[in-house]
Amino acid sequence: MDEKREDLGPLLVEQFRQQMNNLSAAIQLLTPVVREKAGPQYDPYLAILHQSLYRLIRMVGNLEYLELPEGELALREGTLDLAGLCRELGEQVSPLTALAGIRFSYEEEIGSLLTHGDGAQLRRLLLNLIANAVRAAGEGGESGLRLARRGGRAVLTVWDNGPGFLPGTDERELLQRPGSLGLGLKVARRIAALHGGSIVFEQREERGSRAIVSLPLRPPEPGELLKTPRMGFDGSGGFSDTLIELAGVLPYRAFFPEDVE
């Protein structure tokens, strides 16, 4: 029975992805027709449709990633500026969370931090943690990202001022907060481990909680080229990775057709 359940995972992902691709193609064809024939009063319905697609892309992408065997989790490593990556991510996230009535801020102790890593995967890690923090903060709340250097490690802290969690809370409960399957945090943990790092969840001294990511720094060799990760791309087909990972916590207004085309 257990073996059958294990074999079911990849099959389910394949079926989900096939239907998701069909839905995506239909939405792309339907959107311009509805906007031309029916007018802008139908934009909110199209936005809800787009948001549902983005949520589905995220769920299928997380399931697919977690189903991959350890040997297939290759990183596309290169030299990158971790501070620049975080700064750009903060600039992209802040206006989106503002639509949900949540203030997002980015702080850094160092303006440039060169290391080796997979920039796209590190973005995914941080976006998953940010989505969790935004959900915890709730409307009227605050969340943020902070980058620091501690010796030979980069320390990235994603925090929120939500209700936090009680001491001794089981990690399974933490990973499955209301409205969440917890897949994103499992993906984040896996990406951190592939980079030789770890993620720890803590209650903040004041209100809220934080996720602390610790990554070893691997400075570039002299003359090595700096790589800029491709922003706004997801392996599911060219969709914005920021919108995909935040689809579950943003209002439908973030998905109006002109914003996601």
Automatic annotation (TrEMBL):
What the entry lists under SUPFAM superfamilies is as follows: ATPase domain of HSP90 chaperone/DNA topoisomerase II/histidine kinase
Compartment list = Membrane
Per UniProt, which keywords does this protein have? ATP-binding, Kinase, Nucleotide-binding, Transferase, Two-component regulatory system
Provide the E.C. number(s) assigned to this enzyme: 2.7.13.3
Q: Does the keyword Transferase apply?
A: yes
Record bears the keyword Lipid biosynthesis? no
Mainly resides where? Answer: membrane
Q: Which reaction does it catalyse?
A: ATP + protein L-histidine = ADP + protein N-phospho-L-histidine
Pfam families according to UniProt = HATPase_c
Could you identify this protein by its name? Answer: histidine kinase
The enzyme class is transferase
* InterPro entries documented for this protein: BphY/WalK/GraS-like (IPR050351), HATPase_C_sf (IPR036890), HATPase_dom (IPR003594), His_kinase_dom (IPR005467), Sig_transdc_His_kin-like_C (IPR004358)
Q: Which residues form the Histidine kinase domain?
A: 11-219
Gene Ontology terms for molecular function? ATP binding; phosphorelay response regulator activity; protein histidine kinase activity; protein kinase activator activity
GO biological-process terms attached to the record: osmosensory signaling via phosphorelay pathway
